[in-house]
Each structure stands twice: as C-alpha cells, then as structure tokens.
Design goal:
- GO terms for molecular function: sulfur carrier activity.
- The chain is an alpha+beta fold and about 80 residues long.
- It has a single domain (about 10-85), classed as Translation Initiation Factor IF3 (2-Layer Sandwich).
- Helix content is about 30%, strand content about 30%.
- It is built from two helices and four strands, in the order E-H-E-H-E-E.
- The chain has a four-stranded mixed sheet, covered by helices on one side.
- A hairpin with a 5-residue loop joins strand 3 (about 60-70) and strand 4 (about 75-85).
Length: about 80
C-alpha cells in the first residue's frame, strides 16, 4: 500500500478567524480543487478540532493529518491536511 502524498496543493491560513469561517474557507478551497488534491489548514480556533473532522466525514474527504502545535509565542495552533475525495 502506498502512502498518500502529504504535499499540500492549497494552503489556507485561517489563524485568528473563528468558526465557521475556517470551515467555509476549506469548503471553498475543496470545491475549486481536483480529486486527490491536499489542502492544508492552519487555525487558532479550537472548535476546528471537531468541525473539520466532521466536515470531512460528512462530505467524503480524507483527513490525513490533524495536529496541535505551539507557535513562537507558545500559543496553541491547529494544522490539518485534507485530501479531496
């Protein structure tokens, strides 16, 4: 089994935005992309940690990566890689 290509085709910086904006931006990016494209989302809103997985599950896209990081100031940040189904 081959591993998926984790190189993002599209990068979305949604830092500082509150839901539903990050999910709306992801939805728009997915609509414009081709099947198999990978969208990277960087967010600061903790609600993305459940909104983005639900978005993927309901619309048939694959959540390749979901991780929590700390930015340079030590604040929590969220990173997602979503592959269009």
């Amino acid at each position: 089994m081959s591993s998926p290509d984790l190189t993002p085709t599209i990068q979305l910086n949604t830092r500082g935005l509150r839901c539903p904006e990050p999910v709306m931006m992801l939805h728009q990016a997915i609509r414009k992309s081709k099947s198999g494209d990978v969208v990277e989302v960087l967010a600061t809103d903790p609600s993305t940690s459940w909104d983005i997985p639900k978005f993927c599950m309901h619309l048939g896209h694959e959540l390749l990566v979901q991780e929590e990081l700390l930015d340079a100031a030590g604040l929590k940040e969220y990173r997602y890689l979503v592959q269009k189904g």
